[in-house]
C-alpha cells in the first residue's frame, strides 16, 4: 500500500500535532502546549471553512499534512482557498508527497467552486517555490518579513493559482 491523501479525522489529531511541532522546529518558532494544539486542530477540523488533509503512508503512518481555509473574496467576486500550512516530515521529503498534498488541496478548492488558491512562502524556501511554480502558481507580491529572524528573514512571496 502506498501513499493516500485524505481529509483529516479526529483520530489524526496526534499526527497533525507532531507535524506542527516539526514545522515549528524548522521555523524555530514556539507553539502552545500539545493539548492546546490538539483542541485548536479539533476546532478547525470541525470548521466548515477549513480542510486539514493528511498524507498517510502504508498502513497508517502519517507523513504530512496541509491546512487550507476558504473564504469569499471581493478581489475575485467569489470563493477562494488559502493554503495556510504544508508540512512533510524530514524522512519523507523529496518523494512527491508535498505535491500530492497540494494536488489534493487544489481538487478540494475546485470542488468547492473556488476561483483561485493562494499561499505565502518565504522566498528562500527554494524547493517549495519551485514546486508551486511548476504547479502553475505565480508570485503576485513580495514583502519583507520577520526582520532579525534568521529562518524567515527576507521576502515573503504571495502566490496565486487561478482556477476559473
Give a brief description:
This protein has one domain: Aminopeptidase (3-Layer(aba) Sandwich).
What is the strand and helix layout of this fold?
Layout: E1 3-7, H1 13-27, H2 34-46, E2 50-57, E3 61-73, E4 78-88, H3 97-111, E5 116-122, H4 126-134, E6 138-145, E7 154-162
Parallel strand pairs: 4-5
Antiparallel strand pairs: 1-2, 2-3, 3-4, 5-7, 6-7
Helix pairs in contact: 1-2
Could you explain how this protein is built, in words?
The protein is of the alpha+beta class and 164 residues long. The protein has one domain: Aminopeptidase (3-Layer(aba) Sandwich). It is 32% helix and 37% strand. It has a seven-stranded mixed beta sheet, sandwiched between helices. Strand 6 and strand 7 form a beta hairpin.
Quickly list its features.
seven-stranded mixed β-sheet; 4 helices
For the biggest sheet, the summary is: 7 strands, mixed
Q: Using the coordinates above, name the CATH class.
A: Alpha Beta
SSE topology string? EHHEEEHEHEE
Shape: globular
- CATH fold assignment: Aminopeptidase
The name of the CATH superfamily reads: Gcn5-related N-acetyltransferase (GNAT)
Count of DSSP E strands? Answer: 7
Named CATH architecture: 3-Layer(aba) Sandwich
Largest sheet, spatial ordering of strands: 1-2-3-4-5-7-6
Structural class: alpha+beta
Radius of gyration: 16 Å
Amino acid at each position: 500500500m502506498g501513499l493516500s491523501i485524505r481529509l483529516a479525522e479526529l483520530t489524526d489529531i496526534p499526527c497533525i500535532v507532531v507535524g506542527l511541532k516539526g514545522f515549528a522546529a524548522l521555523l524555530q518558532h514556539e507553539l502552545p502546549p500539545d493539548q492546546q494544539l490538539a483542541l485548536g486542530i479539533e476546532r478547525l477540523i470541525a470548521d466548515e471553512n477549513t480542510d486539514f488533509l493528511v498524507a498517510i503512508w502504508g498502513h497508517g503512518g502519517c507523513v504530512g499534512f496541509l491546512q487550507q481555509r476558504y473564504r469569499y473574496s471581493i478581489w475575485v467576486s467569489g470563493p477562494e482557498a488559502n493554503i495556510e500550512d504544508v508540512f512533510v516530515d524530514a524522512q519523507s521529503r523529496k518523494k512527491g508527497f508535498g505535491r500530492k498534498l497540494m494536488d489534493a488541496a487544489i481538487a478540494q478548492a475546485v470542488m468547492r467552486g473556488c476561483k483561485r488558491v493562494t499561499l505565502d512562502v518565504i522566498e528562500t524556501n527554494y524547493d517549495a517555490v519551485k514546486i508551486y511554480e511548476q504547479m502553475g502558481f505565480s508570485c503576485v507580491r513580495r514583502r519583507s518579513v520577520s526582520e532579525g529572524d534568521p529562518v524567515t528573514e527576507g521576502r515573503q512571496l504571495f502566490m496565486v493559482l487561478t482556477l476559473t
